[in-house]
Amino acid sequence: ETGVTQTPRHLVMGMTNKKSLKCEQHLGHNAMYWYKQSAKKPLELMFVYSLEERVENNSVPSRFSPECPNSSHLFLHLHTLQPEDSALYLCASSQDWGASSTDTQYFGPGTRLTVL
Amino acid sequence: AQSVTQPDIHITVSEGASLELRCNYSYGATPYLFWYVQSPGQGLQLLLKYFSGDTLVQGIKGFEAEFKRSQSSFNLRKPSVHWSDAAEYFCAVGDFGNEKLTFGTGTRLTIIP
User: Fold this and answer.
1) Per the CB < 8 Å rule, is B105 touching A4?
2) What residue in B sits closest to A46 (Cα-Cα)?
3) Tens of pLDDT along B54-64?
4) Which of A52, A104, B4, B99, CA to CA, is 20 to 30 A from A30?
5) How close does chain A come to B17, measured CA to CA in Å?
6) Separation CA A101–CA B5 (nearest Å)
């Protein structure tokens, strides 16, 4: 496979469940991102990892827990979510992150999450 | 703080007609500007980007955009749309030095025969 892949593509979970979203990039990039896309709202950057270290956390509630075990994989662990967390969660990657970097971000297809 | 405004929530265009999608940004320095397209059920695909140099930028699928500093705009254009162009289009501004992208709310494009 090429590009950025995400699994599952669709997920329905109850508020007491624990689930994880997975992202894998096959581009040899060093930076990975989680975004939240809600209806009628701009994409919201949630987390950024650069070389497996978290470099950005945009005031995301602790019920979302990211994990980056290596530069190709990114997870978003979910627990005790709320219905308002229902959204499309997009993963992206870019070559690098940081000063002087103008790298393009490449997006995966997203995971459509529904919280009941 | 940087921001992006896409004033048109939904645009309908006849197949073969020309298209212009508007994007206005607010940013303190020279912006890095992007247009992405999202087809139903898909992630975002980069159409084109502007970092510096020529203010008219060519992208994929026959799209182009023009950076106008005086108007703080980066409008996307296509001379003749195809039914396959129906999608949602997002303009974004990049923050030099840390890769953070600020997106607009998107413009949904419908193509009628």
Assistant:
1) no
2) B100
3) 899 999 999 99
4) B4
5) 27
6) 24
